[in-house]
């Protein structure tokens, strides 16, 4: 095999080697600068197709978890509205008991009885309005028998929020107090008012339990999202301290490669001295 010509104006081997080294350094420098500017070791499919595909799948899951928590927050809002309505109904029932106790007095007659009967009817109307107006995004939990199913995870699982028909369980229990005996029957230990109070207590307890379930699920989903993001970071995040040190090294190499190429390009000029 014929040895390569070391003194040729047609083929400058030194320049070719220097140019190749410069191109390699420039490519590495470009990659490092991209990692520093994006903060990512895998910013797109060109960096690592397999890792990028995995990362995109993980990002999709994280976004889906965010969407689930958004819907869970809506469910939490529905319950909060229902609970606030229940609290107001509870206060009204306390006032109802006070008024009915007075109406159960046989000695209460005339205008005084009429006034207290009006108070009782007003309190009943208030309770009715609380039940009808307790809506969140036009959805009620306390004036219906229809439960609400709320998505709880990215696999399509659901949490069921149990409806509490307070129109039947509470309001309908409050009958007329047309005379003292009717009022006395309402406030008896086993009377309709006691039933209304007991039904309200059970409903509030169930709503509170459902609210805790949703709150716990939101917290769990957030924990999953945090752990998933941590795993994602280990796949795609760049080590900026390492890349910064590499950048400085490559910049020095680029300068040296440029100088080496410049020197190699001057080599053919030495051949001119042979003809002087």
Q: What does this entry show, briefly?
A:
Flagellin is the subunit protein which polymerizes to form the filaments of bacterial flagella. The chain has 276 residues and is mainly alpha-helical.
* Name of the CATH class of the largest domain: Mainly Alpha
Tally of alpha and pi helices: 7
Largest sheet: 2 strands, antiparallel
Mean pLDDT: 89
CATH topology of the largest domain: f41 fragment of flagellin, N-terminal domain
**By helix and strand content, what is the structural category?**
mainly alpha
* Strand residues, percent: under 5%
What fraction, in percent, of the residue positions are helical?
Answer: 55-70%
Spatial shape: rod-shaped
Spell the H/E element sequence. Answer: HHHEEEEHHHH
Biggest β-sheet: strands ordered side by side in the sheet: 1-2
**Radius of gyration computed on alpha carbons:** 40 Å
How many angstroms separate the termini? 33 Å
**CATH-scheme architecture of the largest domain:** Up-down Bundle
Give the domain tally: 2
Kindly report the name of the CATH homologous superfamily of the largest domain. Answer: f41 fragment of flagellin, N-terminal domain
Low-confidence stretches: none
Number of distinct beta strands? 4
């Amino acid at each position: 095999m014929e040895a390569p010509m070391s003194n040729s104006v047609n083929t400058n081997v030194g320049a070719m080697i220097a140019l190749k080294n410069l191109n390699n350094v420039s490519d590495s420098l470009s990659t490092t600068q991209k990692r520093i500017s994006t903060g990512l070791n895998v910013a797109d499919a060109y960096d690592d197709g397999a890792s990028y595909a995995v990362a995109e799948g993980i990002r999709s899951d994280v976004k889906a978890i965010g969407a689930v928590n958004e819907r869970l927050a809506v469910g939490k809002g529905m319950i909060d509205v229902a609970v606030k309505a229940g609290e107001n109904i509870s206060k009204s029932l306390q006032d109802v008991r006070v008024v009915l106790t007075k109406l159960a007095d046989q000695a209460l007659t005339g205008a005084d009885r009429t006034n207290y009967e009006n108070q009782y009817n007003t309190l009943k109307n208030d309770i009715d309005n609380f039940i009808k107006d307790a809506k969140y995004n036009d959805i009620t939990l306390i004036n219906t028998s229809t439960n609400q199913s709320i998505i709880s995870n990215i696999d399509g699982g659901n949490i069921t929020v149990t409806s509490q028909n307070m129109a039947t369980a509470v309001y309908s229990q409050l009958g007329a107090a047309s005379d003292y005996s009717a009022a006395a029957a309402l406030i008896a230990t086993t009377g309709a008012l006691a039933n209304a109070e007991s039904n309200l207590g059970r409903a509030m307890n169930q709503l509170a339990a459902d609210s805790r379930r949703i709150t716990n699920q939101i917290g769990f989903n957030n924990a999953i999202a945090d752990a998933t993001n941590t795993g994602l970071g280990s796949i795609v995040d760049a080590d900026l301290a390492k890349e910064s040190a590499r950048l400085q090294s490559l910049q020095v190499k680029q300068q040296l490669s440029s100088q080496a190429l410049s020197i190699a390009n001057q080599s053919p000029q030495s051949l001119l001295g042979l003809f002087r």
